[in-house]
Every structure is written in C-alpha cells, then in structure tokens.
Design brief:
mainly alpha, two-stranded parallel ribbon, 196 residues, 8 helices, 8% strand, 49% helix, globular
C-alpha cells in the first residue's frame, strides 16, 4: 500500500492518465450508441459491463453507471460466477505482489469485499470452487441501485465458461435467479453456450 501511495505522490499524473483513458473509453460507448441508433433506431443496443467492475474498487469509483446507462437500452453485467472466483484469486495475488505488497490476500479480499458491498466466501474457497450463485444476485442488485428501476439488466451467468487452471464444471444448482424487483431483470447465457 505504501509503495502505491509513493507512486501516486511522486507521479500524480498517473491518476490523471487513468481518468483520461476512462473518459475516452466511456465516450466511445456514447458514440457507438449514437451510430447504432442512427442505423436502426428501433433495435435495442446494450452494453456489457466488465466483470472487473464488481471486483475492482478503482473501476467502481471511475465508472458512473447512470452515465454508462444513458448510452444503452439495456446493460449486460458479466457475472460468470464460477470462473470469477479464480479470477479474483489471481487479481488479488497480483496486487499483493505489487502495489499492496505486505497485505495478505485474504485481508485484501475482505477489505475489497466490504468496500464493494459484496458478501463472498473466503479467498481460498472461491479460488478452488468459484463464487456461489448468489454473486449473480448481488451483482444485479449493485447495477440496479446505480442505474435505477427502469433499465433492463440481462446478466451473463457464464454457463461452462472456461478459465485456465479451473476444472470445475457448472451444475444445475449453480444457476440462480435473482429475486424479482418489479423491474426488467433476467439472466442470459453467453454466446459460448451455443457450443455446449
């Protein structure tokens, strides 16, 4: 953590470059939406919400989802819960080997989970078994809170999405449906399921 703060204090422009990249990336969404609506105004246009949005406090702070939603007719959060467990494990391992050197992975996992409003099992559990299906519900609720009730949310649930080094296959009990909230929200399967 100290190392990260030293970098930011010595080179504050790093934060500005990060912010500038995000601004330009989100502007691309607006441009794509405009072009899509110009070509076929009646067709719905949706945006995929990166899985990192749910596990990275910096990304969560940078992205204003209400602005993100203004460039879409629906949002598709990537909530591939089984493979996300090993991805979180790898992400936190990289952070503890770099800017958060000196922090234990489990401590960082607990701090990030609290900061992001997630209730997750231990890092050891999710690294070996993936995230529980409840992660999908939590992710949809986070998006719903930030974009409002009227925006349709079609969550990708990752049926048999492959993650290198993770051999557990999805079982019927791994698929859950978020509780109805009175607004459009449902889960969809990713394109790769057509190969199953």
């Amino acid at each position: 953590m100290i190392e990260l703060l030293r970098i930011v204090m010595q080179w504050p422009e790093v934060v500005r470059w990060e912010s500038l990249w995000t601004e330009r990336y989100l502007a691309l969404h607006r441009e794509l939406y405009g072009v899509a609506k110009w070509i076929a105004p009646e067709r719905p246009f949706g945006l995929g919400l990166w899985h990192y949005y749910f596990i990275n406090p910096l990304l969560r702070a940078e992205w204003n989802l209400s602005e993100f939603a203004s460039s879409a007719d629906f949002i598709r959060p990537i909530l591939y819960h089984l493979v996300e467990g090993p991805r979180i494990d790898r992400y936190l391992t990289l952070l503890t080997e770099g800017p958060f050197r000196g922090c234990a992975g489990e401590e960082l996992h607990a701090a990030f989970s609290r900061a992001l409003g997630l209730k997750l099992p231990s890092l050891a559990t999710i690294g070996a078994e993936g995230l529980p299906g409840d992660y999908v519900r939590q992710g949809v609720e986070i998006v719903r809170r930030e974009v409002g009730e009227s925006m349709p949310i079609y969550a990708g649930i990752g049926v048999d999405v492959v993650q290198e080094g993770f051999s557990r296959r999805m079982q019927p009990d791994d698929v859950v449906r978020p509780a109805p909230t009175g607004s459009p929200s449902r889960e969809t399967m990713p394109r790769c399921t057509s190969r199953i």
